[in-house]
Amino acid sequence: MTFDWHFFFTHLFNLSPGYLGAMQRTILLAVIAQTLGIVLGLFLGIARLSKFRPIRYAAAVYVWMLRAVPELVILMLLFTGLAAAEIYRFEDAYLFGQIKVSAGFQAACVGLAIREAGYMGEIFRNGIQSVDRRQVEAAKALGMRRSTMLRRVIIPQAMRVIIPPMGNQFNVMLKVTSLAAVIGVPELFQTTGTYAAQTFRVFELFVGLAVNYALMTSVWSVVQSVIEARLSRHEATAGSRTLLGRIREHLIGTGGREAGQTA
Question: What mean pLDDT comes out for the span 212-233?
């Protein structure tokens, strides 16, 4: 069977309402899971630096466990395992009495978020540790509480280090959402599989799916480049790196000559 170019381009540029809905669902799932992962990760990062050993060890065990277990296993444990063990069963819910949030979507948000928190916890920990100790000592000398010091001194300065890997994690999250198909979430991967079963155009549809994932992650790479450029605009080396250069670096990497110059 030959590749049907007409079908491919029609599907790529004239998306059906069902496919558009699946794309919106994919992006929404990624945003919610990443946001929850960031919030949980912030607390984990702070806990990893706690003076109290039980808190520090508990956070370390959480990070180790959640990073060691595949996302697919976590999703199956949450959605199927808990229900089978009669511990907890996710049920369809309605926001404002109208917007349906399926049980699978809820489980996917929770599962992807708690695993993402393990990575974000380490990112926050590294970011906090990157702040100059003299800044911390100065804040202490001014009589700041630890919470105030974190909010006004440490976290704002750490964001310059945190944002790049955080952006990369969201890029990964956009692709990892495809695993939610296993628990019945009609995101891009599952919807494409459904269309493929109906049309028997498996190759064309999944090539189109790959293109759509590439487009989504590329758009986010551009957004991430803009954010990083704004955060580093006061650095001494910021002037030597244009916004276009940052975008090129995110999309296709840095050339050998440029890498040699930055080294």
Answer: 88
